[in-house]
Amino acid sequence: MQMTMIEALNSALTLELERDKRVVLLGQDIGANGGVFRVTEHLQRKFGEERVFDTPLSESAIIGSSVGMAVYGLRPIAEIQFAGFLFVCMNQLVSQAARIRFRSAGAYTCPLVVRAPYGGGVRTPELHSDSLEGVFLQTPGLKVVIPSNPYDAKGLLASAVADPDPVLFLENIKLYRSFRQETPEEHYSIPLGKAKTVQGGTDVSIFAYGAMVNVALEAAKLARQEMGTSVEIIDLRTVWPLDEEAIVNSVEKTGRAIVVHEAPRAGGIGAEVTAIINERCLYSLLKPVGRVTGYDTPYPVPGQEDYYLPTPARVLTALRQVMEP
Amino acid sequence: MTIQQVDPGLVPYQILDVEGNLVREVPELSAERLLSLYRFMQLGRAFSNKIIALQRQGRATTFGSLAGQEATAVGLAAPLQPQDWLATSYREIASLFVKGVPVPTVAYSFRGFIPENWPSESRCLPIQVVIATQMLHAVGLAMAAKIAGDPVVAVGVCGDGATSEGDFNEALNFAGVFQAPVVLVVQNNGWAISVPRNKQCAAPTLAMRGAGFGVPSELVDGNDILAVYDIMQKAVKRARNGQGPTLVETLTYRIGAHTTADDPTRYRDPAEVEAWRAKDPIVRFQKFLTRRDLLNEDRVRQIVEEVEEEVNEAVQIAEAMPPMAPGSFFDYTSATPSPRLQEQRADLLRYIDREG
What we know:
The complex is a heterodimer. Chain A is an alpha/beta fold.
């Protein structure tokens, strides 16, 4: 069936609620309203207020109570309305959800999924567009998943729910409704921690995720037309922990690499990918690794955000640089 | 008396006065049970004294004194059933003993390791160090019990300082909105390290916080074990009967330092400590039990010797337990260590092999 990412996520949540009585959904406006983006539309009507419920406007309590529910044996799926609001619940997410297994030496665990929309280009108010995944690279115990298309979104969300540990599942707002894709109606899962080769190539590897996969595809098309460059595009899908084998295998083949993400550059996914390349396959590199990212500034206001977000043109410029003889 | 009022007022609920005289009816407890509560109080104090002594000898890590707060710690846990959950801070170790966590297991954690045999069936979350976070865990556990339809209650405990944290207030709010079967206990010992209670909050009591969240609350003499027990058993019963959450503030005092790293003479008047020493919760209960012919001087001495022996044995067991394996922190980061973690672990073990 042709589905948008919203529909694919709704389908995944429906199936999880049907399959497993322990699954509960909580968050702000997820009940009657179906979520501000409608990801949870009709779910409260179908599964009842006991299992799909609105909470007070209280992010720390959403995550903190989810920790308790997960320890008890439920499978909470919490929605934080926008990823920018994760700052409000950093303590519960980082010092509690991600550490309860560690703190109890495995006596108690926290199988919790935290869903949050993120990403720019849709003219939102402040802190509604920020990409925070880089912040969680130093949160041991937490996985971070970012799908780039409806099919992956559904399969990755199923794996996130099945995971015995907390997973932060970030959904790009611009991708929610931007295109449809053939997506099975039945349950399936895509393993966490595995990248996907979106397009094979021999000259240069682009590592991207979320909305930047399509930006990379556009740029690759332009580079092929302009320079005849064969670009390999790897969709990281799980940004923490990274699929290091996929990164190394691709760079060993192409000898050139570019990382593309919306998040700020410093200490981010791009920095980590670059470090992995340096540690594991530096001598395969023909050129320094390129990073096309958001800037190290606050995410700009709507009137300026187009200057901030990586575009196909910016990625093309980086491709020209790495392809220089 | 039943819990129903919203603002409990300024007078703490008491069953025993400072001299151990009855001012209200004794809750229904057998002689055996009364003595068992007394013994747990003595066990808590002996444990605290022992770990502090070990810390002085370099044999234990930083430890927060439990002295003076035994009535609250024991009284809050005593009404709980095995299926109930308990989420505490570091000041309620005696509560863990009551709930069935073995003394050697807790002692081991003060060797600087995480007990790998933590009894998950005790339903006690590990000692929480990050202030107030556990109150939300207790509420979540209670919400889950309600969703699952289980007759299970959760108790969350924090100190007076924790009530200034957002999580404490968010926990009360969630507890009220979801009518969670939870009892939230504030163990008000007067001091958050060096900051006194009156600099934490301008309200005359912390119990009155409940009113703003629609959560019934009680103010209790925290050095009166019978009062703490009585209010707790009523609050637990309310929760189990589907009548929702309760906030309980127990008024007590931290006789010792905040931790072994703290020097309270820098910030508080020794006269204040002495005044509270006179209200020692163990002595108060002892006087009551003596008057009832359940204790005498010989019996007290015997119990003190017994618990000291129990603690010494527990420490011996803990010291004989193997240290955590080097690199076991990789094993507890997630269910399946990522390839990177496996590599880092192998790296560490190779280094240890080489360098010893």
